Amino acid sequence: MLARGALCRLAADVPKTPHKLPQLARLVRGTLLGRNATAFPTIRAFSRACTAALHARRSYATTARATKPTATVKKAVKAAAAKKPAPKKKAAPAKKAAPKKTVKKTAAKQPAAKKAAPKKRARKVVSPEDKEKAVIRELRVKALKAPVSNRPYSAFNAYVAEMCGGPANKGTTLAASNKKVIDASSKFRTLAPAELEHYNHIANEKTTARRAELQAWLKSYTPDQIKTANNARALLRRKLAGTLKKKKYPAHTNKLHDDRHVKQSPSAYILFLKDRYASGDFKGIKPTEATKLIGSEWLSLSSSEKKNYQDASLAAKAATAAA
């Protein structure tokens, strides 16, 4: 009877839809527990069977009513869709064209050509004339070039410089300058003594200034350098003698007079040579021939005759050392 009452109550409270199976299981268990029906073996077995059946069934519905929407629902969905504006589709960004890959063509490797052996430079054959020119260039460097001339400044030079020089005569032609020099030379001959004295005074001042400048230039070099320069100048005079048309000797080849240079005392033979030249016996004879004759005479002198010249040479050396 207890079981019948539980089933009746269960039938009254069973949900009408099959979607509420979990609720049905809870209802069965609650009814049985409320009436203490689980104490009976039959009811307990029934409860277990219901629970097993509940777990074996699916918990979701598959009926047509649950899956298909009604006409009312369809109308509501259509009305809501009509009210909402369709979302604008974003334009897809334009794809950049991929740069074309340039495939470099690899040229076929050619075998490296053998390097030609470097050609040896042929030695330049220097002619005797070129050698002589090179020697002269070297001598000119050693000879040194003085800033001013050692020649004295004359009154005529002062007068011509005053008449033909100055800014007023700049830019004149060569012919006009030569004409002015000729006119100045003719006027110089007719100068009064007072005017000539004036130009002589100017010339003396110029000469003194020149010599002072030349001495300062000489002292800027050592005595050995001045000696080397004089030797080079002497060689240039010998080598270039007769090669110039207007001048007898080339420029800057005069001997440089240096006060610091210690003069060598003459030897006995040099003293004898000077005496023989001073006698006048060798006038009109070439210096080379005269030197040969004097040398033979020196060899033929006796010891007593040579002693006179030797004593004179020693006295000259003593005087040079004392100075």
Automatic annotation (TrEMBL):
One Pfam family this chain carries? HMG_box_2
List where Basic residues composition bias occurs.
85-107
Name assigned to this protein: HMG box domain-containing protein
Cellular component, GO, one term: nucleus
Q: What Gene3D superfamilies does the entry give?
A: High mobility group box domain (1.10.30.10)
Q: What range(s) does the HMG box domain occupy?
A: 262-323
Protein species of origin: Clathrospora elynae
Q: Which SUPFAM superfamilies match?
A: HMG-box
What keywords tag this UniProt record? DNA-binding, Nucleus
